[in-house]
Amino acid sequence: MSSRSPDEFRLGVRPYDRGACTGDEPEDPHELLHRARRLTAHGHPWAGSAWERAATALRRAGGALTPGDHADALDATALDCRGAARPAAGPLFFRAADLHEQAGQRGKALVSRARALVAGPGPGATACARLAELCERATALQRAGRAGVAEAATVRLLHGRARADLLDTAPDPSAEAAALREDLDRLIAFAAPHRTDPAVLGVLADTRALLGRITAPDDPAAAEAELRTALDDHRAGGRRWPATEHQLLLAAVLRATGAHEEAAALLRSALASEVTDTPLRASDRARLCLALARTLAGSGGQGRTARGAKEEVAEVAEPTAQEEVAEVAELTVEEVAAEEAGERPALLAEAVRHTEGPAQDVRVGALARLLLGVAHAEHGRYGKALGLLEQALPGFAEDGDTAARVRARAWLAECLLHLGEPGRAAREYGLAAADARSWGDPRHGAALSRRTAHALGLSGTPRPVPEIHGTGGTVYADAKAETEAATEGGAPDGRTQGPWPGLRALPEPCGPPGRYQVDVYGEVGGAGQQAATAPGTRVQGCE
Q1: 339: Cβ contacts below 8 Å, ≥ 6 apart
Q2: Which of 44, 93, 118, 340 is deepest in the core (most CB within 10 A)?
Q3: pTM score, two decimals?
Q4: Predicted local confidence at residue 155, as pLDDT
């Protein structure tokens, strides 16, 4: 008998993650069942694969999972639904909640129901109100001894995450953020006396990470302290698997405060750390690569000084490698900057590789291709850039990120211009200008319309006077602007010699859409100078 119902197959969920299947794993179904339960109790990311192996062994022996074990298996599977599989998480959590109820595990049932609400298309006010009710029920069950501290704390944490995602829609976001911080402080005080329980320590780590997230825009130093404590609690709970979300948030706060070297070292360490039984997920590795590439770009090539490079190598050098350490010591700042200038495209290429596959995160994959395409274009490799930018565009169409779409189309147009296809370039510039007209600032749309006219001129097509609609009315590109456009980024005869400088002035893609929201890099809006200026980006949130 299968451990999964036909309904679950119809959800389109891929099989449980097989994880690291080592040769010395037990074959006895009861031993496999014990292992799955243990990994679930510790919140291990590969608990789902352990449940799959246990269910298969039980089925072969003529048995099946009990309702409680089946519920734990569904919870583990839903927690692993990322990227394209993410929409399936909510239904799986709801089914798990029903099975927990059948097994008399009311605390676990409330956790599953709370996770289902958070995993929905977007926690609105209704979902937040239902989560508040679940918090009250969880607290009452815990006081009656019918739910554990970890279960009650988890429901409260999930409610906090939903509130965090709604902060920017509140009448007074700052006041609501302060109120949420107070509630999270109370949650920490509630759970801290029980920190000897690894499950409770895991909730404490995630609570401190959320507290750091909503503190970052107002007090980066306090956010940094919370995030460091979150990582300490994660390790203290015996969780050897990577805490990628916490690391991304901390690195982003460090970038915002100017500590680019430390941010780069943290991200490099996260990428280099490879625990054999719980390696990095492909999507997590891709995000870390993107964040490190952003750190190197934001530091102006100074993510690692010559002295820092020497110390970094010395920390891990064997006694027989002293000659290599001495060689690194001789590196100049310029040489290190040149090394990192080559490192950034390599990181972006690695990010692209890790976003391929059936369960890819469309948004992360599209962003990685956009950034790598831009890197190629900036070095004159327009043919390579063209293919990557064409692959990126569909991802931004699904995501609804106009800043990313405008940037991708503008760079695509520039590549076409340099490859001798001004007609296609004009079309892409025109589409980028049309998207940019939705922004409050009309200057980007006006500049892109002038580039459209420039490309049309090179193709021999008559150039119309562009109309740009902004909040201040209609802006017309005058004859002087048209004349300037004919030589922007190129020689007087219209031959382009390098990328148009206006491309770099376009709004940042995939940035946080609000002051308390998180983007793909782990950055919180308002925490630094690189927050997005264009609307339409999607909330990522703390996972």
Answers
A1: 331
A2: 93
A3: 0.82
A4: 98
